[in-house]
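Hi L., both proteins are below.
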Amino acid sequence: MKKNLNASFFTGLAIGVFSPLVLLPIIVFILSQSYGQSFAYLWSQTLRFPEFMSRYLSLALIGNLGWFYFFLNRERYFHTRGIIFGMLLYAPYMIYVNLGRLF
């Protein structure tokens, strides 16, 4: 079990967790420009309503695919495992928000 957790895994985990948080404002900015609304208005909606956060965060998680293939092509498999696990950490939030609308 010890060889499955090394520094490369935690580097990939950090990339998998923080990369969508960095990409989220960029995606909201692009969407605000395409909708013709101000960034501040769309950003406040994103922070206030979980449904918007879930939508835009799922778009931001797509950015992790670039990191995943980058490290996969360089055969850094511990990095790729960390990125996958980092993306899976967002799954409970997404399930909670999407199933919360049903009840």
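That was the first. Here is the second:
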Amino acid sequence: MDPKSFSTLRNFLQKCAVIIFLSSLAYETLSLDSKFQACMPQSCGNGPYISYPFWIFQEQDSFCGYPNFEITCKNNSPVLTISDDNYIIKDIWYSNNTFVVVNAVAYEEMCPIPLQNATFDRTPFSLSSDNVYFSFLYNCTEQPDYHTYPVRCASNTSSYSFAVFHEEGLESSNYSLESCQSFVNAPVYMDTDTYSNFTSLLKANYSEILRMGFLLNWTAHSCSNCESSGGHCGFDNDHFICFCQDRSHSKTCNDGNSIGNSPFQFLLLFFPSNY
């Protein structure tokens, strides 16, 4: 092939390479942008915005969060199912991996009494040490001389059921816990405003106390570095992913560790460094 024909062919191939490169780059950017957009924080209408590690079923793709953090919107509220129990999420603090939940039973039933202690074994969630315990005592033969919250729907003419904060106060008032058939601790989270308005707390009934909710911790890969770099966190194939405007990254949008092959690698095949 004569030099002129070779040069013409080379120029043609290089133009084709540029077109393919730009097409590939545009496709990749659009596809990654769709994941970036898909994992934007969403709301059920009431309650906090939902983002990684949580994700909303039928509103967000599953790669936006962890499998056990799936949220369902029910009556415009975010609901998380843990061990077959539904919990309404009242608030989320993403900065320290904590959130406040209320057992949906507290809103759905006329007599929402806890029958067993709340446990979160074999889940990514755990009770926060910032909770206080609201103790339920059922079928007691004696009424205490102490401030309690009557549970009338679980009482009758021969037995008395009630709830109380700091059950040790009962014992110090010489009340025998053995006079009760069963005993259950329900965690309750009280913020600073609640503590400062303790008088209104004393006037509340037990179901209103339960609807205050309790604080849970969660365990998941931290999202703060990805978010601070402008990305949205996700989870795919058992790996953490940072979805960015240009493409997916392994940690942050500026770590240089993109997921997948770059179209620049393809372009180098047609534009060698010594050209």
